[in-house]
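By way of example, we now present a protein record of this kind:
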Amino acid sequence: MRTSLRVAIILVIFSGHALAAKGGKKAAPKKPVETMDAGDPAAQELSEKKAAAPKPETEEEQREQEVRVDAAEVAKTRARDKVGVFGNVLVGFGKAPIPDPTAQDTTGKTTSFTFMAGGHYDVSPAFTLGVRIPWTVGSQTQRDGLSTTVSALGTPELMGEYRVGLSPFSRLPIFFGLGIPLAQGNYDTVKSLRQTYLNDVADAASGYRDPELFGPKRLPIIIGVGIDYDRKAINLHAATKFVAGVKVGGTIPDPVTTAGTYKLKSVSFRNVTSAGVAYQFLDKPKLYGALDSWLAYSAINPDEFESNRGASSPTRFQVVFEPRVGARFGKISPSIGYIFPIGGRLADSSISGLELHCDVAF
């Protein structure tokens, strides 16, 4: 019996140890597999960023990425309208300079309205053809003090433009034009002289910007080049053009005076160099502000006065500014600007112009 009791006590002790060992294994928590960053949150976050960061790009990949960004910006830029027409009204106030012995003479005080219509058609993405036709009507004070309403057709102009791409955002436009010599006016009759003076007023009110449109008895030939930069909300542009007006008729009845001689030049010549900036400050509706300026140099006027008394010639330079505001509503783009000269003969004669413009695209 003693032997049996000893065996039972041994079995109980052995079983207790076995159960305790088995229960301890179930309660032991499972430890995660440790790494070099384990236990440090800052090191773990840095490790995750390193894993997510792409490998450094090569120069070729960087260039491809820049091209993709440029292409995305170009896609956001409004595409050029293939066909467009426009209407323009220029309201002129003041007097226009005319050649005389003292270089101070002007036309009578005039309020003029120059209506111009035209349009363009893109033959290809790089080449455009266009046309514009001016016509002016005005109330003009004559030398006898009477006011007379006069109208005069200007010179219709045929234009062409070829654009060379310099970058996704810049272009080099090369433009040329040829006028049809239909502008009314001459120097031999009172009626024709009034029409000549009215076209002089229209030319002066536009700030001498477009001499090809207002020269009676002249065949204008135009050639020029410019540069345009258009990216996001800003547009920068500059251009220079040369206008030669070939005489096709006209006479001065009494060219010789005691002070000198009036002459109609066989070729007139004017250079106009312009620069401007436009900024779109609202997207909906699309509103923008702009400032244009230009320098006109009249190297040879259509009619010149040569003094025999040694009188100095008037300045041939003219600086002009035009601030503008405009908008775009779908296919219609109206704008309004005010043309005013800085110094020169136009400022001396106190002439300026209010310009209303509207483009319609198709």
